[in-house]
Amino acid sequence: MGERPAFFIIGNPVFSGTRDTFGGDWRQMGEVRDIERLIEPGVDAAGYELVRVRFAGGDAPNLQIMAERKDRRPVTVEDCVTISRLVSALLDVEDPLSGAYLLEVSSPGIDRPLVRIGDYTRFNGFEAKVETEHPIGGQRRFRGKLKGVQGDKVVIEVAGGDAEIPFEAVRRASLVLTDELMAASMNEQGR
Questions:
Q1: Which of 4-8, 18-22, 55-59, 73-77 has the highest mean pLDDT?
Q2: What distance in Å separates the CA atoms of residue 41 and residue 75, rounded to the nearest whole number?
């Protein structure tokens, strides 16, 4: 479930192609999905689960890879190095990005993002923050205890009852660092 604080490995700049800027959103959504499809099988085969791929930055873009171990043990610096080398090799061969960027690999950390519908079941009972793309019942931000999923809806207990949020409407979500989450993380690490 939770992990020790995130570790980061920043790789050397990677140069490829002819595009010299990533400008604007630089087709982020399509490129992120392409990169996920490219690297996920290798990351999976190495014993890790891809949590999130994201681009950040402007003049010095970063390709951020967030992964966790399949055995749910804490991610170490050595794990980040392994993932970084694997991802670098895959990106060098396939060359899906042009321009220079830095590769950053990290664990999701204890207050991890919730990116897959299964995350809401896995972390059922813990406090989370959920922001939606458009208002649901008049609001876009929800904070409360996760109650899993019903069909394609995330259920979160908020003041006044349960909110059911369509998964496709979630813009971003993450666990909230609480004493309960810390204790559960420590128990899991002590296995």
A1: 73-77
A2: 19
